[in-house]
Structures are given as structure tokens and as C-alpha cells.
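Reopening this one. Same input as before:
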Amino acid sequence: MENLKKILALYGFDDEGFSNKVYQILLMAIEFHHPKKSAKELLDIFNDEDLIKVLNNLIFYSQQFLFARQDERWELFIPLWIEENKAELFDLCLGTKLCEPVTPTKIEYDAVAIFGANKSEIYRRYKFVLELLKSKTILVKNSIYLLTGQRKLTPRIDGSQAYFDHLHHRFGETLYETHLMIDLFDRFGFAHYLGESIKTFIVDTPPGNSRRPNTFDTLVAMKDQLRPQEQTLLFISRSPAYWEQKAAVDRVFGESGLEYEVAGGSCTLSEVSDKARASYHILMSLAGALYENYLVVARSINDERKIYSDEQIQGFKHKLGFRALSNKEVLFSDKPLTTMSNKTK
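Same output, byte for byte:
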């Protein structure tokens, strides 16, 4: 917790009375595994007005200053406050749970679902799963789900020109992350370790109204495809993206009645050459986890206390300028509160 406090201090949250409440919610995103339960615990700490103020400000600032990327993680630009504090931030980030591996707690799972990403990240996630299978740390009873979608591949990030030529020859002119997931899955030889009885399902998520599908879209698509016999699920990610993706899994599957876990390897520290960029990737995952858990917590608070009527929730206007939410997901006051100072202003 102390490292998280220091990160927020560098970020500019220097009102100690207000920050103590922020830390509680920050720990909710990192320490707790059940955001809905956390909402009830938070309601015992703060009154309704204070809690909504904290939620609004935390989400507003974390999205505005910790999520300054274009569309993909490799299209980010580094905020000045991170560049100026990169050495200290890097050490602080490494001292949190945001970089640690998370191992499965069971042996048998009905299905394993692997999150898509760019080429190098897919490679690491596949390697993590294959090591679990080879060592018989886990056993898959029914299915593998490849969680991917129609994100157009990016030269260099998703492979060399020679590899793109191979993919074009195999899949045709237009290449998506789905093709990358399938090709690498075949190259890893999963069929040999899974056996003929294990089925593989490709969750090829369309982009919808966005440039490409996100984690939430893909999980919703998977939930629609999930077979009735699959009651225990293991999702595979990797730190630091684990924390954001774990929160998204909670949001989609938290009340499904299914038994699930999210696991993944640690940050690969030996590959870090740019401490500012590395710190920013870690902090973006923190911001994503806060955002995903916020949606669960905010809805749970409203269910518990009925702060707003259904008509009021439907009528809220989204004015904060970050990710678009549907009206039913918005639990903001009419305008963001600005009681926190921030060094980036």
C-alpha cells in the first residue's frame, strides 16, 4: 500500500484527507477479488456523497492522466510527470502487486481462455499455458477458447515482413489478430498436449462501433458462445495487463454463477530499457483496473442505496471526455469535482 501511496503522491494527489479515501478504492482494485463485495465495505466507510465524490474524481483523473494513449498500447505518449519521475516510478511500480505472476489454484478446469494481444505478448501467454500443461500443473477437461477479434495487424509490432507474407499466404489479404492467434497456436503444437477430445473455439469478436473490439467486448462474445458443460474457467493474461483484464472478467462473469480464475506470468523485467515507457504500461493497467471495477462498484452502490432512480441514471450526460459508457453504466454527478490538485496542470 505504501508504494501505491507514493505513486499517487508523484501523480499529484496531495490532499491527505481526500487521498486516504482514494487509497481505499485503489486497494479495492488491486487487492480485492470481488468488487461488488468491496462496494458494500466502502459504503460502511464513507457516506453516499463522499463516496461518489471519490469515485468520480478517481476515475476522471486516472483516465485523463494515466490513459493518454491513442488506440493501442504501443501508440502511447508519455506524460511529463511520468518522464520526470521515471526512475522512482519504475522502482515503486515493481514494488506493487502489479508486476507479480498469478498462478492457478486448481488442477482441473473445464475450459481455458487465452486473451489475445500483439505477437510477442501472445507468444508469452501461450508459453505460460504450455508450461502449465507440460508440467501437468493444470488439466483441461473440455475446451480452449482463443479470445481475439478483428484488430488489424500492425507491421513490426505483430511480426516481420516475412511473417506477414506467411500470414497473407495462409489467410488472405486482410489480416487480423484472430489470424495471429490461430497461427501461433498451431506453431506451439497445442494439439499434441491437449489431445483429440479437447475442442478449440475461436472467439472472433467484431469491432462494433470502435476501431477494434476491446477486452469487455470479447468477454461478452465468449459468454454468449460458452457451452453449458463448462462451469470452471481459467483465463490467461500476464502482468501488468492481468489486473485490467481480471477486473473485466469480474465485470462480465462476476454474477454468472460460474467458477473462474485469471492467471498469468510476471512482467518481463529483463526486457525493460525505457523506464518511463515501462512505468506507463504498468500505470495504464492500474487505470484500466480502476475503470472496470468502478463500473461494478458504482452499480452495486446504487443497487444497495438507490441513490438515483432508474430515470435519473438514464438521463445522466457523460461529460468527462474519456471512454464512452452506456447510460445505464454511468453513475456520475452532473460535472466532475475538482477538489484534488494535480502537478500536471
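So the earlier flakiness isn't reproducible anymore. For the record, Residues 275-305 form the longest helix (31 residues).
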